Amino acid sequence: MSDEAAPGINVTAAPGVAFSYRYGFRLPAARIAAIQEAHAATCERLGIARCRITGMRYSRSEENEITATLGFSLAPDVARAFGRDGIRGVEAADGMLLDSEITGEDAGARIDQLAQAREAASAERAAIDARSGVTTHEARAELERQRAAATGSERDAAAAIAEQRAALAATPVVFEYRSGQAIRGFDPASPFTRAADLAVASARWTIGTALALIGLALPPLLLALLGLLLWRRVRHLLPAKAPRAG
């Protein structure tokens, strides 16, 4: 599978945008744990300044199907390359990329808006301080209330700016894995792949339904067989009927 299967956007093409990446993979169940560990090791080699693992999950269902996730927080300049390398690792393990998604938020524009709000709150607080010479108790109380509100707005804007800057400094990337057989050379949405998936799903449903029916029917059959055996044993113990006189 080529790199074009995982479209991306270089951070230099959209300055001020906070991106997040998500990749969905399908590969043989027996290889999910190993490739998940390999992806985690790749992050560790980058160092905590450029990559941190933010979450991990591995789950096996009663039908022996496996789903797993691995979350990362990466330096923006390595996030896209990290995703491409992750795809190559999955393909080397006989897996495939099912889907990928890139979302972005214009953090730069949001920071500008918040900075204007902070400056307005600061100017309002300065104007209130200039009127601090009022003498009446009621006027001083009102000015204190207004000053507290302006200070709170200024503080909230500063905290929001810090949050947006943090979003620009770290890019979240999520790898999602699920078990299944990859069909190389075919698109996951092609009729061949859909037909193969349908056949597997149909076979699983048929086997599951047959086992369920056996499970439902077996107890009554065993009970009927036990009753028949008991009846045959009891019948031999009963006295034989005398023949009628002719």
Question: How would you sum up this structure, described in words?
Answer:
This protein is of the alpha+beta class. It has 3 domains: 3-106 and 168-184; 108-165; 189-236. Helix content is 57%, strand content 20%. The chain has 5 helices and 5 strands. Strands 2-3-5-1-4 form a 5-stranded mixed β-sheet. A hairpin with a 5-residue loop joins β2 and β3 (66-74). Residues 1-9 have low confidence and may be disordered.
The general outline is elongated
* Strand arrangement across the biggest beta sheet: 2-3-5-1-4
Number of helices: 5
Estimated helix fraction: 55-70%
Main beta sheet strand tally, sense and closure: 5 strands, mixed
- Which consecutive residue ranges, at least 5 long each, have pLDDT under 50? 1-9
* Termini separation: 95 Å
Radius of gyration: 34 Å
User: What structural category do the secondary elements indicate?
Assistant: alpha+beta
Query: What is the number of strand segments?
Result: 5
**Roughly what fraction of the amino acids lie in strands?**
15-25%
Average of the residue pLDDT scores: 80
Order of helices and strands: EHEEHEHHEH
Total domains: 3
